[in-house]
Known about the structure:
Oligomer: single chain
CATH superfamily: START domain
CATH architecture: 2-Layer Sandwich
Helix content: 25-40%
Strand order of the largest sheet: 1-7-6-5-4-3-2
Shape: globular
Number of strands: 7
CATH topology: Alpha-D-Glucose-1,6-Bisphosphate, Chain A, domain 4
Radius of gyration: 16 Å
Low-confidence stretches: none
Number of helices: 4
Strand content: over 45%
Amino acid sequence: MKTSKTTLIDAPAATVFLWLEDNDRLRQWVPNLIEDEPLVETTEKVGSKFRQVFLENGRRMEMVGEITEFVENERLRVDITGKMFDLDADYVLVALSATRTELTQNTEIKLKGLMRLFAPIMFLMSKFSSSDPQADAHEKLKAMAEAEFQAG
């Protein structure tokens, strides 16, 4: 299942990028993320690994990820692996001006095991659902990045 979301943010790309790569900031806008810790850090960032824990319906879901592409203030791509699915999240930033950034998140989710049987149902549910977790997350990120930039 693939999704894409683009958001315009009234803050410089450098400020927006901090909200993608900083563990403390990430926990503030990614839904249900309660832990985010580095496991292996490389100087060039690509190859760095991390562990994340999400709290979904009262259950902890642990995932391990790796940075696969990194261009500071322009692109961050991560592959994240869990028991039920794998996730490829690609964040692309375009500086439209010194104070305005376009953020696009392209995500591909690959369900595993029995979860694959539910893929068509999950796809239909997402199409007809009134809630959009990705859009909600982007709105949180937008508000926080803009507030940080305005605060100076």
